[in-house]
Amino acid sequence: MNNKIYLMAALIAFASVGALLIQPTVASAQSSMIDNILNSAIPSSNSNDNNQQSQSSDSNSSSSSSDNTSVAAPISTSLSCGQVIKQSVKLTANLDCKTDGIIVGADGITIDLNGFTLSGPGEKSSKVGIMFADNDEVTVQGPGTITKFQAGALFSGGEDNKISRVTFTGNEIAVFETGSKNVVIEDNLMFENSIGVAAHSSSGSKLTTNLFKANDLAGVTLVNSAKNELSMNTIQGSVNGIFLDGQSTENIINSNNVLQNRGVDLNNGNGLPTNINNNVFSDNNCNTSVPDGLCLGR
Question: Compositional bias (Low complexity) at which positions (predicted)?
Answer without folding.
Answer: 44-68
